[in-house]
Design brief:
CATH architecture of the largest domain: Alpha-Beta Barrel
Structural class: alpha/beta
CATH superfamily of the largest domain: Aldolase class I
Strand order of the largest sheet: 9-10-8-7-6-5-4-1-11
Number of domains: 2
Bound molecules: iron/sulfur cluster
Helix content: 25-40%
Radius of gyration: 21 Å
Shape: globular
CATH topology of the largest domain: TIM Barrel
Distance between the termini: 26 Å
């Protein structure tokens, strides 16, 4: 059994951003947050009976990820309590990666020091953009200066592993503004950058306003220029949307793309464990009350057939710079890689894919049309074509799930 990743979903936010369709509650009361923490600890307790310390199926955890929402609205005391409850019930490896997502304006040097002391060793900060007009368009409640302060304070508090989320394709964003943001954040003490293309999600106030987005070609140019700039600044691209200094790729999120098991706690969390994928009820109050009453909180559960796993191996593996291996595919799924290889060879002629030994991976141009390529490989889409013809963008909702997003 490989080491396990644990995801803890904290679906609270200071306020709701205009583009966000993730499950999160703005402005929750202390009482609700306290009840939620209790419910999470009870959930951990239950799970520890079959995978925790002392259980027969005891597994080692090597990554823990507090995602949201905005976990830091819980405050360092509650977050510390949750981490300590997890440590008491599960075996953590000697050097686990323990991430907390944060937003500027929800942390101070003092709270960051407390988080560091509680054991968090990686922080992912939602910067998005530095220009006030763009932050207003997104409905973010912080400024660019606050984002810079949050990163500086995190470093001062002792975080050596700091990530920033950056958005491109924001209505009204010029290439110059995007480049200015990227160049500025490269001067900060970051080890990791996640770069997402904004998607207008149905039902959000931003989508309802029907704004004009930067054109597809312009966004494709922004993405490719960013890949180049980040490489020059020492950030290696290891996934469509993710760039890290050497040794700092996000170990937790990498599990999603390499089909390693993970278990999620909290409302709307997802798990992939024991050959099953399951999700928890997507309602904070229902989750709290069900945990109090000892009722089941799993909403959907599905056994994953081998054929589906094979498709996931290709779909998720091709998001990474490491790509997929024909030998591994054949060994894991007892299936021929030949037809996939033929299609990848066609992609290579377009400059969309490359091969090295028995491995295939997409190029940055290929990443831009990865959905089309993967659709064709898995026989569910159109033929691959030139990226400029129908540029897609790596978006924050590609990947594991909307709540357990890869960012
Ligand atoms: S984008 Fe992040 S901070 Fe904004 S509402 Fe959504 S989860 Fe909360």
């Amino acid at each position: 059994m490989p080491n396990l990743g644990v995801y803890i979903h904290i679906p609270f936010c200071a306020s709701k951003c205009l583009y966000c369709d993730f499950y999160s509650l703005p402005d929750a009361s202390d009482k609700l947050m306290d009840s939620y923490v209790k419910a999470l600890i009870r959930h951990m307790d239950e799970a520890s009976h079959y995978m925790g310390k002392g259980s027969k199926g005891g597994v080692a955890l090597d990554t823990v990820y507090f995602g949201g929402g905005t976990p830091t609205v819980l405050g360092p005391a509650r977050l510390g309590e949750l981490l300590s409850a997890l440590r008491k019930r599960f075996n953590l490896v000697t050097s686990p990666e323990i991430t907390v997502e944060a937003n500027p304006g929800t942390v101070t040097l003092k709270t960051l020091k407390k988080l560091r002391k509680a054991g968090f060793n990686r922080i992912s900060i939602g910067v998005q953009a530095l220009q006030s007009n763009l932050l207003q368009t997104l409905g973010r409640t912080h400024t660019g200066e606050q984002a810079a302060d949050a990163v500086r304070d995190a470093a001062e508090a002792g975080f050596l592993n700091i990530s920033a989320d950056i958005l491109y394709g924001i209505p009204g964003q010029t290439r110059a503004q995007f480049s200015e943001t990227l160049r500025a954040v490269c001067t900060w003490r970051l080890t990791h950058i996640s770069l997402y293309g904004l998607k207008l999600e149905e039902g959000t106030p931003l989508a309802a306003a029907d704004p004009v987005l930067p054109g597809d070609d312009e966004q494709a140019d922004c993405y490719l220029a960013a890949v180049d700039l980040l490489r020059q600044e020492g950030f290696q691209q290891y996934e469509i949307s993710n760039f890290a200094k050497r040794g700092y790729l996000c170990r937790h999120n990498y599990k999603y793309w390499t089909l390693e098991p993970y278990v999620g706690f909290g409302a709307a969390a997802h798990s992939d464990f024991g050959s099953k994928r399951y999700s928890i009820v997507k309602d904070i109050r229902a989750y709290v009350s069900k945990m109090q009453e000892g009722e089941a909180v799993i909403e959907e559960s599905q056994a994953i057939p081998m054929s589906e796993r094979a498709g996931e191996y290709v779909m998720l593996g091709l998001r990474t710079a490491n790509g997929v291996s024909s030998n591994e595919y054949t060994r894991l799924f007892r299936a021929s890689f030949d037809s996939l290889e033929n299609k990848l060879e066609r992609c290579a002629k377009w400059g969309l894919a490359e091969t090295e030994g028995d491995r295939w991976h997409l190029t940055p141009k290929g990443f831009l049309v990865s959905n089309q390529i993967i659709g064709e490989l898995l026989n569910t889409g159109d033929n691959p074509q030139s990226p400029k013809k129908d540029a897609e963008k790596p978006s924050r909702s590609d990947g594991a799930s909307s709540e357990q997003r890869i960012d």
